[in-house]
Amino acid sequence: EADIYQTPRYLVIGTGKKITLECSQTMGHDKMYWYQQDPGMELHLIHYSYGVNSTEKGDLSSESTVSRIRTEHFPLTLESARPSHTSQYLCASSGNRDSHSPLHFGNGTRLTVT
Amino acid sequence: KNQVEQSPQSLIILEGKNCTLQCNYTVSPFSNLRWYKQDTGRGPVSLTIMTFSENTKSNGRYTATLDADTKQSSLHITASQLSDSASYICVVSDRGSTLGRLYFGRGTQLTVWP
């Protein structure tokens, strides 16, 4: 099992609330990612980071933001949650070797916005 | 357009039987192909990674094959167990950047019945 942790596992919040999804890894990986996954659909990349103070938007348009102040920590923030944000959010990291390094995923946060 | 297509979408087999899952891709240029297993409510876990020069790779009862000419891969599961019930996701990486962009399939949902 990879050492990457996400909290909370489940979250139900009302529309308009600000939330932060936490992700931490203890493997010293420089590369970290946030994916969104809906049932029966492929994973979509919403943010990624090559290292401290490096963040980029992914393929999926998202109203979320991320920060990377420490190597091990890559939180995702939604300033104003909407029902369309209801989804599963997966955090991942990969080794520093090359593009053949596998992704190590956390167990996800299932977000429901009412 | 770079795509990854998996078949079948879902599959039910009896415990102890073998099965084969398919993955066809149009990603170019090609860097590597990965198979992940995702248990319900968990993050995906890497099973195999194959580069252009590899056409077979095994991980216990899982054997992946790759035909880079026809752009097809298969994942063969031998002597299935109840714990094999999961979604199996095919992921292809291109060589467009140091990061290697990842293209995800929608997965095959495998159910193993006793």
3D architecture notes:
The complex is a heterodimer of chains A (114) and B (114). With 114 residues, chain A is mostly beta strands. Chain A has strands at residues 4-7, 10-13, 19-25, 31-37, 44-51, 54-57, 64-66, 76-78, 87-94, 103-105, 109-113. In chain A, the strands form two sheets. In chain A, strands 2, 4, 5, 6, 9, 10 and 11 form a seven-stranded mixed β-sheet that branches. A four-stranded antiparallel β-sheet of chain A has the order 1-3-8-7, with no helix packed on it. In chain A, a hairpin with a 2-residue loop joins strand 5 and strand 6. The model of chain A has no long low-confidence stretch (mean pLDDT 92). With 114 residues, chain B is mostly beta strands. In chain B, strand 4 and strand 5 (45-51) form a beta hairpin. Chain B is globular, with a radius of gyration of 14 Å.
Rounded Rg of chain A: 13 Å
For the residues shown, what is the average pLDDT of chain A?
A: 92
Structural class of chain B: mainly beta
Order of helices and strands of chain B: EEEEEEEEEEE
Number of helices of chain A: 0
| Overall outline of chain B | globular
Oligomer: heterodimer
